[in-house]
Amino acid sequence: MATKKSSFLVYLIAFLSVTALSTFGFDILIPPSSNNGGSWVLLHSSIGISAMHMQLLHINKIIIFDRTDFGASNLSLPAGRCRSDPNDMALKVDCTAHSLLYDVVFDSIRPLLVQTDTWCSSGAVIADGTLVQTGGYNDGERVARTFKPCDDDQCDWKELPEYLSVRRWYASNQILPDGRIIVVGGRNAFSYEFFPKNFLNDTSPANYYLRFLRDTRDPREENNLYPFLHLLPDGNLFIFANKQSISFNYTKNSVVKEFPVIPGEDSRTYPCTGSSVMLPIRLTGGNQTENPEVEILVCGGAPNGSYTKAERGEYISASRTCGRIQVTDPNPKWAMEEMPMPRVMSDMVLLPTGDVLLINGASNGTAGWEDGRNPVLNPVLYRTYSSDPSQRFWVLNPSRTPRMYHSSAVLVADGRVIVGGSNPHRVYNFTADPYPTELGLEAFSPPYLAARDSYLRPSIISIETPQNVVPYRGSFGISLMLGLYRRSRGIEAVMMAASFNTHSFSMNQRAVVLKVTSVVQLSLVAYKIEVNGPQTTAIAPPGYYMVFVVHAGIPSQGVWVKVQ
Length: 564
Known about the structure:
mainly beta, disordered N terminus, 10-stranded mixed beta sheet
């Protein structure tokens, strides 16, 4: 029987042999890893609040918050601090936190003080890394709030009362090429406005009427709240609500194009809540133009009337379809695909590989208080680049924790997806059956993080640009380590914007695949690639991005850069 020492030597010789052969230009065919389905780790059984909203910041910390009128949370504010709000609908004086900062690297939590109600609000990060959060409920419905990251743990929320022109409750945000934020919709708010306001032009209206929002509202169920927004590479805004979608020129307040109605009877936006992503913008091959091809993917939702029925205790099956459309096509049409199971209230998270993770949600009912049933515990991987639609969906390993209404998920720089939240009740309810308020925080590791693939995983040594600033229309180098370079599988550099996630929609989520112009081997396991940066601010709005190097379907850890 072989000893541990001899087994290790055999492994080492085999590894060095295939590495050396690869070094001399031979592409070694190594069998792919067996399907592992990903893995789950419980980070905290309780963080004290329910993660209704999440935003990853460029300091590798996640700002998390729920709402102030849930009652007292399980996380105390520090040093005897209390929030005094005579307008609050639960507690006029509250010494517990409803927001916190989670440190991804050190797995630690710091309570934050948010003053007014952030229930069902929206947000975006501007170019300097500051989170701008807009709207909410009650005394928070017209408030804009900012959180500027700091190194000394002294930063906290700042509030701008009455900054918004109308109530923005269930609205959506998108960062724009000029660095402003557009805030679209909300309950009975058929308009949009901008942050910051145009203080240089007093004649500009406070907001702009958008008939599309009124036209897509169902009389009894709405089904057009939290509209899906995606900034297109031509600078126009893709807006999807209910079943309809448009390309919209927000500078001229005009509809550029009406897209076909997505087929089927399912509504896709709140409360028949599906989700949506803009698939990666690939600046490779012949697509390296100022107006590259781009596709939108919409998955899940519920049939019309589902919300009304759920309010009466009838929880009908959710949608099991996805629609995919190339919006840059002269004659765009929806291509429909079928998921392995019905899903409502699921999150869609773009991964560095270009695949999409569908996670959280239920298979019956809708969003809303007590309106969902039968949690979907299995994430599903949507393999974007598979040419065969029937092979695109891969059911992954399940969580043990139902993540229903008011759950959330965000990608972090090490490639994991942080998952939290779920509170389908009007207040905190920790004894509810079958779905109590959930305060836990989990991490899901997608299959590409399997240890058996470590020899294929790049490790970024440095981004070779001053202060990690990536210029428009420029190029830069990335130095990296790689155990085994499989040339036929290629190597890519991907920029990913961190998203603001709430109510199954990740606002400002964006992936840009950059063109790799050269790969140079520096030593046995050291390489340098040259990469072209994005051409325009419409392709990649200014701000912070995570850069991943992806080799053979396995991503490195992300490194933060600033695009300007």
